[in-house]
Amino acid sequence: MKVKCGVLLLGIALAATAQSWATTLPGACGDDKVQFDVKTTKHQPAPAPPAEGKAQIIFVENFAQNAGTCIGCKVTTRVGIDGAWVGANRGNSYFAYTVEPGEHHLCAGWQSVFQRLKKKVGLASLNAEAGKVYYYQIKVRMLANDEMGMEKDLELAPLDEDQGKYLVKTTALATATHKK
Asked: What is the CATH number of domain 24-178?
C-alpha cells in the first residue's frame, strides 16, 4: 500500500513539474502542442492575389548566422494568427495565408523541443484591408557571442511591398503539414 501511495505521489509531483515547465505563449500564437513538418520547393511562381473581399499575408523566414558550422540551421518557425497556428517556414522560405479584413494579431515562434527557444517569439498586429497583400519577415539569428556561446533571436517585422516581393522570388515555398 505504501509503495502504491509513493508511486501516486511521485506521479502527481512529476505532472506538476511538467506543467510548470510548459511554455506560456502569447495569445496571438497557438497551442504549443501543435507541431509542423515543413517541405520547401525552390523556384515557385509568386502567390496568386487574395480572393475577392479577402487580404493576404505572406510570411518570409530569413535565417542569419555569423558562426562557421551550424547544427540545425534550418530553423522551423510556426506562424500564428489570432490564437491559432496557421503554418510554418523552415530555413529561407515563405508561405501565404488569406485572412478576412479587419484587425489580426500575428505571432512567429521557434518550433523546438527546448523551452528556452520556444519562448523566442515575435509579435505584430495588422489591420488588414480587402484586396491587399502584406509581407512580414521572420528574422531568425544565431550569432556567436564573446562568451563562446550562441545567441539565438527571432523577430517578426513588416516589410514593404518591393522588399517582400523580392524575398518571395529568392526563397523557397514552404508547405507545412501538422505532425501526428
From this structure: 2.60.40.2890
Helix, strand, coil shares of the chain as percentages rounded to 5? 20, 45, 35
Q: What is the pLDDT along the chain (180 residues), one digit of tens a residue?
A: 554 444 333 344 434 333 334 457 888 999 989 999 999 999 999 999 999 999 999 999 998 766 555 555 678 999 999 999 999 999 899 999 999 999 999 999 989 777 777 778 999 999 999 999 999 999 988 766 666 566 778 899 999 999 999 999 999 999 999 998
Measured distance CA(71)–CA(75) in Å, rounded: 10
- Whole-number Cα distances in Å, 133 to 18, 55, 60, 126: 41, 6, 13, 11
Q: What is d(CA 153, CA 146) in angstroms, rounded to the nearest whole number?
A: 16
Give the C-alpha separation, 106 to 28, whole Å: 6
164 CB contacts (<8 Å, ≥6 apart)? 58, 60, 133, 135, 137
The whole-model pTM stands at: 0.81
Residue with cell 519562448: 119
Sequence ranges of the domains in the chain: 24-178
Give strand ranges (E) for 25-120. 36-41, 55-65, 76-81, 84-90, 93-99, 102-110
